């Protein structure tokens, strides 16, 4: 019997396994996919994720970066453009099949067992142990379980957790297609002075479109709420095509014809009402718990951090032989990343995404003001642990002057040159 059974071998599950193995627990990861399983994702590794991986003892996962964006270009309707970069901060860009496999390998190198091709179908409690059964009838037992099965409905189906509510779910679609990336990157570097990622607004309600360069693949997608997606599916596909066309006109993508929507997936925008069960001896981590930043959709940092916190909580429960200690998990994740993301991030989301008009207004206000744009950058990179609160409070405090300034924001704002020089 293992001390800890981790169900799901994405970033959350592997991080839980690494932290548990390093703390001396016997741990097994049950992953339904094969070693090279892919997860549909932008593959943007934020500053918070980079730092969290280093703290976890998984810095080697950063070696899977295929590209590195030192800044970003935001495009608003009317082709208003904001260019920004903050010295020393940026996004690593990975292919998830490679990144996730590396994390599972690292978990193995610390002593965890990883079973690929194990699709958990049920989790039951038998006295003081959890029993996980696969679809094929295999059985694995442990003292506790961390469920890190992503944004699907496994926690409610197998364990009776309250569901991720449809109004709190997002939906993304796009592609990661083979593409001559280096030629584009060379042109971008010439135009902006660094390699950016691109975020484009106005082609989808309540969300955005992104362009993320990998080594030989371009990842382009867009996301909105699940409800909007169900209502306007066809319009959103047209929006994707219009976004590509604008990207071509603006010199962002010279071969948009290579990029067609071929995948889609869900993304949570708010945690479940409950993320642990003492009776079932289980904790939820990553997307299974709903830990994605609601404004940006960045979820890998929440996966890595919650995986580690879950493992630490299990270790305490084992050490004290007290499953009652599992309840401390919720206070831990709330203090670590929850308050900033879900008290303030959700307020920002309501401010920015309640209607297309508000989104335009909010972003124009940010574009027109150097400090607001710096705070947005810190939030996009997740480089400041209270970035959502700081941006929200700044926008509220300076609302009247930003409102007056925003119509004069001009076509292009380039804060990056000044910041790169100062840095
Ligand atoms: C289109 C899109 C773009 C995104 N872009 C970004 C981005 O650029 N940066 C960022 O930080 N975040 C991004 N996110 C969010 C990010 O992908 C997730 O937050 C992250 O993958 C969560 O990690 P996880 O380990 O919790 O879940 P997952 O990565 O979904 O991993 C879950 C694992 O569990 C396995 N599993 C599922 N069910 C079972 C079962 N029954 N038994 C055994 N194994 C099972 C799966 O095979 C999978 O390997 C994006 C999301 C989407 C949808």
TrEMBL record:
A molecular function GO annotation: oxidoreductase activity, acting on the CH-CH group of donors, NAD or NADP as acceptor
Domain annotation FAD-binding: ranges: 3-332
The keyword Membrane is annotated on this UniProt entry: yes
Transmembrane segments: 192-212
Top-rank lineage group of the source organism: Archaea
InterPro entries registered for this protein in UniProt: FAD-bd (IPR002938), FAD/NAD-bd_sf (IPR036188), Geranylgeranyl_Rdtase_fam (IPR011777), Geranylgeranyl_reductase (IPR050407)
SUPFAM superfamilies in UniProt: FAD/NAD(P)-binding domain
Keywords attached to this entry: Membrane, Transmembrane, Transmembrane helix
Protein's name in the database: Geranylgeranyl reductase
């Amino acid at each position: 019997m293992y001390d800890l059974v981790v169900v799901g071998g994405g970033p959350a599950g592997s991080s839980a396994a690494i932290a548990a193995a390093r703390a001396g627990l016997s741990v097994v990861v049950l992953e339904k996919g094969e070693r090279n399983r892919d997860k549909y994702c932008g593959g943007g590794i934020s500053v918070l994720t980079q730092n969290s991986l280093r703290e976890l003892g998984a810095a080697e996962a950063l070696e899977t970066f295929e590209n590195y964006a030192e800044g970003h270009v935001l495009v608003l309707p009317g082709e208003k453009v904001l260019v920004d970069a903050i010295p020393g901060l940026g996004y690593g860009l990975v292919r998830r099949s490679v990144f996730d496999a590396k994390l599972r390998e690292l978990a193995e190198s610390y002593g965890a067992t990883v079973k690929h091709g194990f699709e958990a179908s049920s989790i039951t409690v038998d006295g003081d142990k959890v029993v996980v059964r696969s679809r094929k009838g295999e059985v694995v037992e442990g003292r506790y379980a961390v469920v890190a099965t992503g944004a699907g409905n496994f926690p409610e189906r197998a364990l009776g957790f309250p569901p991720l509510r449809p109004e709190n779910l997002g939906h993304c679609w796009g592609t990661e297609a083979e593409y001559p990336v280096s030629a584009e990157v060379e042109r971008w570097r010439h135009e902006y002075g660094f390699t950016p990622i691109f975020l484009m607004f106005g082609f989808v309600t309540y969300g955005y479109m992104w362009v993320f360069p990998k080594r030989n693949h371009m990842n382009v997608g867009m996301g909105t709420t699940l409800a909007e997606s169900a209502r306007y599916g066809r319009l959103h596909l047209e929006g994707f095509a219009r976004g590509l066309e604008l990207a071509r006109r603006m010199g962002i993508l010279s071969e948009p014809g290579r990029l067609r929507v071929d995948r889609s997936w869900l993304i949570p925008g708010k945690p479940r009402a409950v993320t642990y069960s003492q009776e079932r001896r289980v904790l939820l981590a990553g997307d299974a718990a709903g830990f994605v930043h609601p404004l940006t959709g960045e979820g890998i940092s929440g996966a890595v951090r919650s995986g580690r916190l879950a493992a630490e909580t299990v270790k305490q429960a084992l050490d004290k032989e007290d499953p009652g200690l599992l309840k401390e998990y919720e206070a831990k994740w709330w203090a670590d990343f929850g308050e900033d993301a879900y008290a303030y991030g959700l307020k920002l989301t309501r401010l920015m995404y309640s209607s297309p008009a508000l989104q335009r207004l909010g972003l124009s206000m940010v574009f027109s003001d150097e400090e607001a744009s710096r705070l947005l950058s810190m939030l996009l990179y997740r480089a400041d642990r209270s970035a959502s609160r700081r941006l929200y409070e700044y926008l509220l405090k300076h609302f009247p002057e930003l409102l007056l300034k925003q119509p004069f924001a001009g076509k292009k704002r380039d804060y990056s040159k000044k910041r790169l020089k100062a840095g």
